[in-house]
């Protein structure tokens, strides 16, 4: 009996030390995103950030034995946040580009994005060739904005904080079209009357996870987790939860 008490006391003491030392507490993987990009990331009715990217990040964090924390910010701030380590990873439907590769590293790609054109149903814009001289709405800091400025001139491109604002501008005739990624485009068109997506694909691109240049250890871990999640069907499962094949 006495011994049992001693053992219990010892176990309790060890448990307390562990608690204070923080063992048992998981490390946190911090993800930066811009949550106005459904179905990749958006805020649900309960105020939670959900979507394909949020779930992929959660699955990766689980594999690494870490907790996941999501920080929502302007799309334009994500690369800097990653460089300054205020976030560990960026999952934001972010396109791999040579320009961004100068600032951050990218994981293997986990999805494809296509820049498409949203117009009003009665628009005279029918193909990419009709964009010349038109006012084009985009989200600032995105590849769509960059391509449009390069192809049609800065003066013709209006940049909004997020896709919903660009689409609202189209509804109010402040722009003639919106250039944005295909899956969010489908969501916006569904949520707004009188809009359509043109059949033409403007640019096809790869989405990947951005990680600070000097954090190669995390990059390796993320790529390993990603490849396992691709192989065991987790990624496909997450994607088909949010994107239904036509
Ligand atoms: N794919 C585009 C890019 O990388 C747009 C991404 C916008 N993402 C977002 N979460 N708002 O520039």
Structure description:
There is one protein chain. This protein has 246 residues and is of the alpha/beta class. Helix content is 39%, strand content 26%. The chain contains 9 helices and 12 strands. It has helices spanning 2-21, 52-63, 78-83, 98-101, 143-152, 163-171, 182-191, 216-231, 234-242; strands at residues 28-33, 36-37, 41-43, 49-50, 67-72, 89-90, 104-120, 136-139, 157-160, 177-181, 195-197, 203-212. The strands form 2 sheets. Strands 1, 5, 6, 7, 8, 9, 10, 11 and 12 form a 9-stranded mixed beta sheet that branches. Helix 2 (52-63) packs across helix 8 and helix 2 packs antiparallel against helix 9 (234-242). The structure holds arginine (ARG). Arginine binds at residues 33-34, 36-37, 41, 75, 92-95, 113, 139, 142-143, 181.
Topology:
Elements: H1 2-21, E1 28-33, E2 36-37, E3 41-43, E4 49-50, H2 52-63, E5 67-72, H3 78-83, E6 89-90, H4 98-101, E7 104-120, E8 136-139, H5 143-152, E9 157-160, H6 163-171, E10 177-181, H7 182-191, E11 195-197, E12 203-212, H8 216-231, H9 234-242
Parallel strand pairs: 1-5, 1-6, 8-9, 8-10
Antiparallel strand pairs: 2-3, 3-4, 6-12, 7-10, 7-11, 7-12
Helix pairs in contact: 2-8, 2-9
The protein binds arginine (ARG).
Arginine is lined by residues 33-34, 36-37, 41, 75, 92-95, 113, 139, 142-143, 181.
**Each distinct ligand:** arginine
Tally of DSSP helical segments: 9
Given as residue ranges, the uncertain stretches (5+ residues, pLDDT < 50) are: none
Number of strands: 12
Strand content: 25-35%
Distance between the termini: 69 Å
Structural class: alpha/beta
Largest sheet: 9 strands, mixed
Give the topology string: H per helix, E per strand. Answer: HEEEEHEHEHEEHEHEHEEHH
Q: How large, in whole angstroms, is the Cα Rg?
A: 22 Å
